[in-house]
Amino acid sequence: MQSQQSAAAGPSSMTDVGIAAPIAGPSHLHRRKLPFPIYEDDQDEASLLAVQAQLPSNHFLAQRPVTPPRPESVIDAAWGDRARPDTSSLAAADYDVSVLTGFLPPEEPVQSLRGIGHGWDQLEDALERVQYEVSMIPGGGVGKLSDALRESLRELPMASVEPLTTLPLLRRAHTLTAHLTHFYMHSTFPSQTVVPACLAVPLVQTSDRLGLPPILTYADTVLWTWRLRDKHLGLRADNVEMTTLFTSSSSEHAFFALSLFCELHGPELLRLMSASLDEAFFADATSLSRISAYLATIAHLIDELTALMAGATKGEFGPAGRERISPEAFYWEIRPWFNGGKWKYEGVGEDGQDLVMEWGGPSAGQSTLVHALDLFLGIDHAPRRPSSPTQEKTEALATIREEATEVAEDKASSLHKAPSDATFMQRMSHYMPGHHRAFLRHLESLHQPNPAAPNAHVLPSLRQLARRHPHRLGPAYDRAVQAMKRFRDMHMRLATVFIVQQARREPARDSVHWAEWETKRVAKEVERTNERRAQEAAAALVASSSSSTSGLVSTVPATEAVRKQDKIAGTGGTDLVTFLKLCRDRTTEAILGSAPSAAAS
Ligand code: HEM
């Protein structure tokens, strides 16, 4: 285990932060002399940053939240010291990552805060009541909670964070208050816009201690929301079940279990990454062949994640191949509970004033595991330099227009806008627990010069090594990146089946979404009719005027509202198809072309 101070000084690999590598590796050889000069990447970072700064805020990379991340300084240092001894894993407390469970907590999450007092019993009771009521409402219950239950949520006691002295207790408190908040906000349709103080205050306080935003996150719905069926068998796919659901349906259970099963691959992936970085330190012939072998296993494990997702599109995944997520239930009944939004949080300001914040809902895009793989392989999601002056001009114009809209919107609220230079992946990292975000930062820092020790060796990234040794390492590197590309190809298919296709289908007539869907359908119908009439009129005009050569064929422009409605947003609020395709394309770009199948895949 490593202290925060020495981690900041820049340890040479993940092993240094406590991700001990049980895989036979040469960590005892760390004193060997470096056999190569420091490799310089040829990217012009300054001009890339300049381009990032121009991104319009509705760009896919400027994905929600628009509320800036909460500063790390809000994490109470005194509390941190008290909580640290409780991270009783073999991994570094600094990063809350375990060799045995990866980004999942090393022990079964706390299932309930009953008995710790200070109002938490009432919150647990309320969760049980609301889960029961929703489970009895056909169609998922979004927007259909009884007034009495909604009222009772508003009148809960203000739970105190005082007894939450350990990470496991805080995790449960966040999961509990975030779920209750989403139950309350989506209890009506349209949703509520004010988070009552009894939910907002403990949610914000636990969020600040965990380095999370005050909204439901991937950590609340996957990482911290499981229990073991048999306590003696330990954490494995056939011995785990999800808890704290919205609809209690088997589809919702399967949806979260899918991500959990992916996370179960975390420990092995992290060990292999760690061992590879240890070897990268030397990069001699032996090390390169070891890294190649590790990369082959990494590619195989990524393919297992892809296979899990392939099973999900067929409705058969999991240990017994029987897990099934109904795409309709996911889209119309489960997913609406996750939605974030621009909400007023009562009483959470420094002087107890209300604050308006806007956050997106949970998404597996917040999985630290996938971000770590991208960082490890050097798959770069940062915005690229515009390829032509015209494109640059278009982006600049879009920025100006966006800024004008933002100014108008800002007048109406106390909302702060996020800087537009953050990439989607960076933004998603603000939805990760603070420790995991710090882990990613640490991974990045491994390959950057340490200002405190300017003459110290900078560890080459795997990509840099593969470029330096195209014959020895290139093919293995490319195969791992190709595995990530297959993962993203399959993920796009998943998003198509579960979101794009469902958005085109009619919801159930008794669903709260039906009226909205019908309005949109009618608007589209009107638009199509108008376009057809305009074309017919133009054609008639051309036919009747033999002298006309100008071909004045025009169409009535579609209304902006309809166009906006046509955009299908992701669970975290992105323009889905464009965004996921771009993530896939960035992965393809990382392929060096060394593997035999590189060109073909
Ligand atoms: C039915 C299952 C799934 C659906 C419908 C789905 C949908 C989406 C959507 C809509 C996005 C766009 C970003 C957003 O708006 O949040 C996204 C992003 C993402 N999802 Fe999923 N997802 C599913 C399962 C998974 C699983 C199992 C993983 C793996 C842990 C995963 C990993 C990611 C990642 C890493 C991103 C960021 C984009 C990228 O890196 O390619 N998703 N997902």
List keywords for this structure.
601 residues; single chain; two-stranded antiparallel sheet; Methane Monooxygenase Hydroxylase, Chain G, domain 1; binds protoporphyrin IX containing FE; 21 helices; Indoleamine 2,3-dioxygenase; disordered N terminus; mainly alpha; 2 domains
Blueprint of the fold:
Blueprint: H1 4-8, H2 45-52, H3 77-83, H4 120-135, H5 147-154, H6 167-185, E1 194-195, H7 197-210, H8 218-223, E2 226-228, E3 240-242, H9 250-263, H10 266-280, H11 285-314, H12 327-338, E4 341-345, E5 355-359, H13 368-377, H14 389-411, H15 424-429, H16 434-445, H17 462-468, H18 474-503, H19 514-544, H20 560-566, H21 576-590
Parallel strand pairs: 1-4
Antiparallel strand pairs: 2-3, 4-5
Helix pairs in contact: 4-6, 6-7, 10-11, 11-18, 12-18, 13-16, 18-21
Bound molecules: protoporphyrin IX containing FE.
Q: What's this, in brief?
A:
This protein has 2 domains: 4-33 and 69-234 and 248-375 and 388-414 and 426-505 and 568-590, Methane Monooxygenase Hydroxylase, Chain G, domain 1 (Up-down Bundle); 514-566, no CATH class.
Descriptive notes:
The protein has 601 residues and is mainly alpha-helical. The chain folds into two domains: 4-33 and 69-234 and 248-375 and 388-414 and 426-505 and 568-590, Methane Monooxygenase Hydroxylase, Chain G, domain 1 (Up-down Bundle); 514-566, no CATH class. Helix content is 49%, strand content 3%. It contains 21 helices and five strands. The chain has helices at 4-8, 45-52, 77-83, 120-135, 147-154, 167-185, 197-210, 218-223, 250-263, 266-280, 285-314, 327-338, 368-377, 389-411, 424-429, 434-445, 462-468, 474-503, 514-544, 560-566, 576-590, and strands at 194-195, 226-228, 240-242, 341-345, 355-359. It has a three-stranded mixed β-sheet with strand order 1-4-5. A two-stranded antiparallel sheet has the order 2-3. The two termini are 41 Å apart. It binds protoporphyrin IX containing FE. Protoporphyrin IX containing FE is lined by residues 255, 258-259, 262, 309, 312, 325, 363-365, 367, 370, 488, 491, 494-495, 498-499, 570-574, 576, 579-580, 583.
